[in-house]
Amino acid sequence: EQWYQRRVRGPWGQKAFAGYLGDNKSAWKQYDATFTAKEYEGPKLEILLDQGSDDPYLNDKQLLPENLANACSNNKSINLNFRMQQGYDHGYFFIMSFMEDHFNFMAKHIC
Questions:
Q1: CA terminus-to-terminus distance, the chain
Q2: In contact, 47 and 108? CB cutoff 8 Å
Q3: What phi-psi label fits residue 87: left (phi over 0), alpha (psi between -120 and 50 degrees) or beta?
Q4: What is the pTM of this model?
Q5: Given a cut of 90, is residue 63 above it in pLDDT?
Q6: pLDDT (tens digit, 9 = 90+) per residue, 3-30?
Q7: Residue 88 and residue 52: Cα distance in Å, rounded?
């Protein structure tokens, strides 16, 4: 199975990557977080990922965060904190509920 079939399997991902990067699927690789996590060999990284359990794109298998989680779990250089937030979609209340956590995370790891 080609990397792009695993990572951008959903129609939304295919459409988005093609729209921004063209139809040459090999050009998509460097912009695919799952592929990047799988191949990453740099310094230790900390990643915080929140996903709403009621996100319709998640339930339609459009987002596939489990692919990123699997890639990170197989890479000793990446520590992924993947938080499935029960009862949230990807709208305003989801963003507002967890935005402070992400600002604090960025302040700790980037600044």
A1: 39
A2: no
A3: left
A4: 0.82
A5: no
A6: 444 445 577 778 888 898 898 888 888 8
A7: 4
Helices (H), 1-111: 3-7, 11-21, 33-39, 56-59, 65-73, 92-109
**Arithmetic mean of pLDDT over the chain:** 88
- pLDDT of residue 105 exceeding 70, the answer is yes
**How far is Cα 27 from Cα 44, in angstroms, rounded to an integer?**
26
Q: How many CA atoms lie within 13 A of 28 on its CB side?
A: 23
**Type of residue found at 50:** D
* Residue 64, token pair as written in the block: 């596939």
Residues facing residue 83 across a β-bridge: 50
Query: Residue 82: enclosing H or E segment and its boundaries?
Result: strand 78-85
Angle formed at CA 9 by CA 38 and CA 92, multiple of 5 degrees: 90
What type of residue is 86?
A: Q
